[in-house]
Amino acid sequence: MSDILEKIIAVKREEIAQSKKRHSLEAVRFDAESRVLTRDFAGALRAKIAAGQAAVIAEIKKASPSKGVLREEFIPADIAQSYAEGDGKISAACLSVLTDRQFFQGGVDYLKQARASCDLPVLRKDFIVDAYQVYESRAMGADAILLIAASLDDTQMRDFEAIAVELGMAILVEVHDGAELDRALKLKTPLIGVNNRNLRTFEVSVQTTIDLLPKVPAERLLVTESGISTREDVAKLRAAGVHAFLVGEAFMRADEPGEALAELFQ
């Protein structure tokens, strides 16, 4: 685990402890289990691919630790609508909303606002290290959660997946290399995310996804993450057989994020 990831996880555990004091696990679990109408996250991705298009998980992200604020005028509902509309022909399949406060200036309300403004399934993108957060994710309305293999052991991933499935949520498990991919493939989720950012050097290369693709069984759906910013990147990945993408920073500085998405994936 990288130093920055360790720092984020340490802060996350403190936040969870405070959240548990405000709302008990039992209360959050009850709330989560009462929300039965999830949107089909994996189905939305596969539908785009079946239609011959790229399946894009479009990210709503105000800031990052390395680049600071990405979008000053940050209105999640408007961004979500822009992604859902695209240019009228090409649009997002799903949304990803950052809810981490300290490092990404995200928030739970951002996810709620984005989901309420359109019909797209929504991924809660955060650093999940406790079962409490899985229930919390469904309680806030998330249709899917991100599990980062680098920050979890096999038992945690299996347990969190089981809870998510019980709640009707999809799981996108994120890996950075072959060893993490081997661990991820022990799970039942069809969604495997390959983060193209090297956790040690922080260099980004879409070649990471292409190199790992042959190890991903045909029945799984590989989602490439990070470093997709040009049509050349998209063309290279699609030529290799990658058709699902998670992209955020490339759109956040555009006046109309949905039009920027359509232009990148046309």
Mind explaining what this structure looks like?
- With 266 residues, this protein is an alpha/beta fold.
- Helices cover 43% and strands 17% of the residues.
- It is built from twelve helices and ten strands.
- It has helices at residues 3-22, 25-33, 41-50, 76-85, 108-116, 131-139, 154-166, 178-184, 207-212, 231-240, 249-252, 257-264, and strands spanning 55-60, 63-64, 68-69, 94-98, 122-125, 144-148, 170-175, 191-195, 221-225, 244-247.
- Helix 2 (25-33) crosses helix 6, helix 4 (76-85) crosses helix 5 and helix 4 (76-85) runs parallel beside helix 12 (257-264).
- 45% of the residues are buried.
- The mean pLDDT is 96.
Q: What gross morphology would you assign? A: globular
- Distance N to C terminus: 36 Å
Widest beta sheet: strand line-up: 1-4-5-6-7-8-9-10
Total DSSP helices: 12
**Helical amount:** 40-55%
Query: Structural class per helix/strand content?
Result: alpha/beta
Low-confidence stretches: none
Topology record:
Layout: H1 3-22, H2 25-33, H3 41-50, E1 55-60, E2 63-64, E3 68-69, H4 76-85, E4 94-98, H5 108-116, E5 122-125, H6 131-139, E6 144-148, H7 154-166, E7 170-175, H8 178-184, E8 191-195, H9 207-212, E9 221-225, H10 231-240, E10 244-247, H11 249-252, H12 257-264
Parallel strand pairs: 1-4, 1-10, 4-5, 5-6, 6-7, 7-8, 8-9, 9-10
Antiparallel strand pairs: 2-3
Helix pairs in contact: 2-6, 4-5, 4-12, 6-7
